[in-house]
Specification:
This protein has 8 helices and 11 strands. By secondary structure, the chain is α+β, with helices and mostly antiparallel strands. Strand 1 (78-82) and strand 2 (87-91) form a beta hairpin. Helix 1 runs antiparallel to helix 2 and helix 6 (247-261) crosses helix 7 (283-300).
Length: 387
């Protein structure tokens, strides 16, 4: 659980850092865009004054400074309109693909849109008798628009970065868990292998020495059971080839095993279709999943109650449901029931359901989840396998 807490803290830290960086970027960009916008507006006032001076110039006026100011504008889109909103001049606007009236109409509509947005400067020239007015309509430069959009692009990149980082952390966490599970399983299988082999040999000696003893067959069943457990542990970490098996037989084996090893106060029933439901699976590992669910149900019922195993054969999937009338699962624990290390028992490793989920989802490409649980009423686990 310490690793889980560490991952959670790192995720929160990454999100907080991303939010802080985004806020700082947005604030800094806002002030920078505002200052550049004011500077562009002042430049346009100067440009408008230069244009006004050009219109009022005579043959004795030195136009070198005026023309240099007008020609210095290479970034800000400008359209000059007269009183009737006809285009007089324009700069820094692309009109490729438009000829004649099309280009004039395009420039006029664009200039009017600048005018309506209140981005214009009114200039006047001529004497009192022949006073004329023009409107220098302008828009933000490409650089200013890009700068205004930059923080939002940066924010999107930051969100992608945080998501990728969190996914990487989760993948790292899962990879480490897998290594722990595989290592623990392989070591358990290795440690159990030798004594189980010795027990099998001793059972054979006892069977030959005491052929009429009725307890020896039961001992042999337990030893075979241990051998199956060793086999299951040895398969964790590998991908055993699934073969077509009868789900009916798997559930009956589990019911038979649980009935022999639980109290008479626990009633276990198996509701299966009359026909065999054939599924591609590893029967040994799948039995382990159902046994885990049944053992958890027995613990939840505290040794007295009813367990229902239900097999449903749909057209596109096979469903197994394990229901009990135990104490149920609290809502706050529902999302953690399959987490490694999570357990509500005083004794237990909290690996049973996490291994069951791994077997169902990774080995059999199915789904396992809590279909229903209510405190004091019971719990139903549902497993779905594709046909």
């Amino acid at each position: 659980m310490q690793w889980t807490d560490r991952i959670r803290k790192v995720k929160i830290l990454l999100v907080v850092m991303a939010v802080v960086i985004a806020i700082v970027s947005l604030v800094a960009s806002h002030y920078l865009v505002r200052d550049m916008s004011v500077e562009e507006k002042n430049n346009m006032k100067l440009w408008a004054e230069a244009l006004n001076a050009l219109n009022d110039a005579d043959e004795n006026t030195d136009l070198s400074l005026v023309l240099s100011v007008i020609q210095a504008n290479n970034t800000i889109p400008v359209i000059v309109l007269d009183d009737e909103k006809n285009v007089v001049d324009y700069r820094n606007i692309e009109i490729e693909g438009k000829d004649g009236n099309d280009s004039l109409n395009y420039l006029k509509k664009l200039g009017v849109s600048y005018f309506k947005a209140d981005n214009y400067i009114k200039i006047e020239f001529g004497d009192d008798e022949y006073r004329e007015y023009q409107y220098v309509c302008y828009d933000e430069s490409i650089m200013l628009k890009r700068l205004a959009a930059y923080p939002y692009i940066q924010l999107g990149v930051m969100v992608v970065f945080v998501i990728v980082a969190i996914l990487a952390l989760l993948y790292s966490k899962r990879a480490e868990q897998n290594k722990v599970w595989v290592g623990l399983s392989k070591e358990t299988a290795h440690q159990l292998g030798t004594p189980v082999s010795s027990l099998m040999a001793w059972v054979e000696i006892l069977r030959e020495t005491y052929p009429d003893d009725t307890l020896i067959p039961e001992m042999n069943k337990d030893v075979e059971r241990l051998q199956r457990i060793v086999d299951r542990f040895s398969k964790i970490g590998s991908l055993p080839e699934p073969v077509e098996s009868s789900m009916n037989d798997v559930l009956r084996h589990v019911v038979d095993y649980m009935n022999r090893r639980t109290s008479n106060k626990v009633d276990i029933t198996c509701n299966c279709p009359a026909h065999d439901v054939i599924v591609k699976m590893n029967a040994s590992l799948f039995e382990w999943v159902i046994e885990n669910l049944c053992k958890n149900a027995v613990d939840a019922m505290e040794g007295s109650g009813h367990i229902d195993l239900t097999l449903i054969d749909d057209s596109h999937q096979v469903v197994v449901e394990v229901s009990d009338n135990g104490k149920g699962i609290k809502k706050k624990d529902m999302k953690n029931v399959f987490a490694p290390g999570f357990t509500t028992k005083q004794r237990g490793w909290g690996l049973g359901l996490s291994l069951a989920k791994r077997i169902v989802e990774e080995y059999h490409k199915g789904k396992i989840f809590v279909k229903m649980s209510e405190v004091g009423v019971g719990t139903t686990f549902r497993i779905e396998l594709k046909k």
